C-alpha cells in the first residue's frame, strides 16, 4: 500500500477492499445454508455471517492500523481468522485523493472505526438480501468523516458479478454511485420495516408523505437518499446504534445531505460515547431543508427521545 498516502485515505481504501471480502463471506454463508441464528434481544438477530464478516473486517484493519480504535457490532472473537479472510489490498483511486490540511495528518489515537458487518440481519434471514449492507464508518474525534457501504447482493447489469461499494469522505469526495435528486412533485419518506410503533408512526405522519418506503437496514435507507428514491429517512426510536449510522452519515454528508438526531444534533462517534442512537435519526437528501423536517416532528415525539 502507498505509505505516502494519508492515514484517512489508507483506512477508507482498505475498508473498501475489506467490505468486498466480507460481502463474499456473507453470500457464501447464505448459499451453504448454515446461518446458525442467535437472538441477542428483541428484534435483534445475529448469524454466522455477521460473526464471520466482522472477523474479516476487524482482523484486516487492525493488522494494517494497529493504533486505531475499532468497534464492531458483534462481540469480539478469539477464534483464529482464516488467512484468506485477511485483506491487505486497498482501493487505488481512494489512495490518490488529496485531502484538506486538517485531515492530512491525523493522529491514529483520534480515529475510531465503527463496523456493522451485516446491516439488515432480519431481512437477510428472511431472504430479502437486497436490503443487506456492510458498513465501515471512520470517525475522527467525534465526527463521522469517512464511510464505506457495501451491498453484497447488488446485481451489476453489465456483468454477472454481485456487489457494489459506495464510499464517501466528507469534504473530499465520493465514489461507487451517481447521486440523483429525489422527485420534485412528491415527498417520499423511508423508515423502518421491522421496528415500528406509535411514536415512529406519529413522526412519519407529521411529514405528510406521499409515499412511505419501509425497508431494512440504515445503510439501505441512506442509499435510497443517495440515489433519489427518497427525500428523507426518519426513525423516531432509539433502536439503532452508532455502527448503523457512522458510515451512512459520512457518505451522505460527502454529497451534501444531512444526518442528525431528531433534535438536529449530530451524533458523537468517539470511542467513549454511548452505542445507542437514543434520540432517533433524521437524514435528508441533498437539496432538502433538514430544518423543515425537524420543525414538523411533534414535540411529544422529541420528548420521548431525550
UniProtKB/TrEMBL annotation:
Cofactor(s) listed in the protein's UniProt record: Mg(2+)
EC number(s) reported in the record: 3.1.3.57, 3.1.3.7
Listed InterPro entries: CysQ/Inositol_MonoPase, Inositol_monoP_metal-BS, Inositol_monophosphatase-like, Inositol_monophosphatase_CS
EC category name: hydrolase
MF terms in GO: 3'(2'),5'-bisphosphate nucleotidase activity; inositol-1,4-bisphosphate 1-phosphatase activity; metal ion binding
SUPFAM superfamilies in the cross-refs: Carbohydrate phosphatase
Keywords: Hydrolase, Lithium, Magnesium, Metal-binding, Signal
UniProt keyword annotation of Ribonucleoprotein present: no
Family that this chain belongs to: Belongs to the inositol monophosphatase superfamily.
Protein's name in the database: 3'(2'),5'-bisphosphate nucleotidase 1
Organism annotation: Ooceraea biroi
